[in-house]
Amino acid sequence: MSRFVICINNDSNRASLVLGKVYCTLPDTEATAHNMLRIIDEDRSEPEGYLYPAFMFAPVELPEVARRVLTATGD
User: Fold this and answer.
1) Which end of the chain is more exposed for a tag (fewer CB within 10 A), N or C?
2) Is a pLDDT exceeding 60 seen at residue 73?
3) Domain range spanning residue 37?
4) pTM of this prediction?
5) Phi/psi at 32 (nearest 5 deg)?
6) What are the Cα distances from residue 60, in Å, to 23, 47, 57, 66?
7) Sign of the dihedral defined by the CA atoms of residues 36, 6, 1, 66, in that order
8) Cβ-based burial of 65 (10 A; exposed 0-12, middle 13-18, buried ≥19)
């Protein structure tokens, strides 16, 4: 799975996820085994992120400059 994903469905989490926004995922093999992703969302109160169903996101490959910026700001 890509380290970055784009939100393609925020129907059940409109306050926490922005449709079309790129999010950074955190490694979590147990979550992945259950078709979930650990995401740093808009709330940002939980540094370990929150679990969301994987179907709500699509993996994206970003240019190096974009990866550096998103990683540096925590997005």
Assistant:
1) N
2) no
3) 4-73
4) 0.83
5) -60, -40
6) 10, 22, 9, 11
7) negative
8) exposed
As for how many domains the chain has, the answer is 1
When pLDDT is cut at 50, 70 and 90, the band that residue 1 belongs to is low
Q: Is 29 helix (H, G, I), strand (E, B) or coil?
A: helix
Instruction: Name residue 1's amino acid.
Output: M
**Residue type for position 58:** A
pLDDT tens, position by position, 16-65: 899 999 999 999 999 999 999 999 887 777 778 899 999 999 999 999 99
The two structure tokens encoding residue 42: 């808009």
φ, ψ for residue 59, nearest 5 deg: -65, 145
* CATH number of the domain that residue 36 is part of: 2.30.30
